[in-house]
Specification:
Layout: E1 3-8, H1 13-23, E2 28-35, E3 46-50, E4 67-70, H2 76-79, H3 82-102, E5 107-111, H4 123-136, E6 142-147, E7 151-152, H5 162-171, E8 187-188, H6 189-200, E9 206-211, H7 212-217
Parallel strand pairs: 1-2, 1-4, 2-3, 4-5, 5-6, 6-9, 7-8
Length: 219
Amino acid sequence: MATDYLIAGGTGLVGSEIIRQLLANESTRKIITLGRRAADFSDKRLTHLTYDFSGRPQKSALPSNCVAICTLGTTIKQAGSQEAFRKVDFDYVLNFAEIARDIKASSLHVVTAHGAAKSSLIFYNRVKGEIEEAIQRIGLVEVHIYRPSLLIGNRKEHRAGEGFAAAAAKALSPVFKLPGLSSVQPTPADHFAAFIIRQASSVSPGNHVHSNAEIMSDR
């Protein structure tokens, strides 16, 4: 069945990989991306709407009954402050979830992080937990939350430690199969994107939280 997608965060590591895989799938009818910059792809099925995640974009420009995917996220270092980080990882994500509700998206898929918990003493994890709770209360029929570990892949921007993590993940792959360790295994972006797309292709009403162990065991 042909499917329309609305994506926020399409220029990031996971978002761009999701778009790449969707464009390789004949069942993808239309992809609309929201954000400051357009994803680096050329395809007649792909449209970009410049949007700053304040207010609401014109509803007539958005697909109805689509799959909504949000991979927005930054780091406190990149954002420059805890306040700026929260603006992206909570305010922007909540804004996108509200858009998904308003256009009656068939499902919403949001990437948070391993360790997300609103009671966490770690600010990063606490914000991730708070946004998880907020989007599960927003009134959508189907919500999927994904908690990957350290994401690895070919980023446009350098993040310290990721090259080492990728090498370590490959070398220690047998170790990560031991009970309990799959939850912290670094998460390859291409594998993760494929997992999200598989969840998005099925109908499963309710709120779902996918751990990194589940993501990495799905092969």
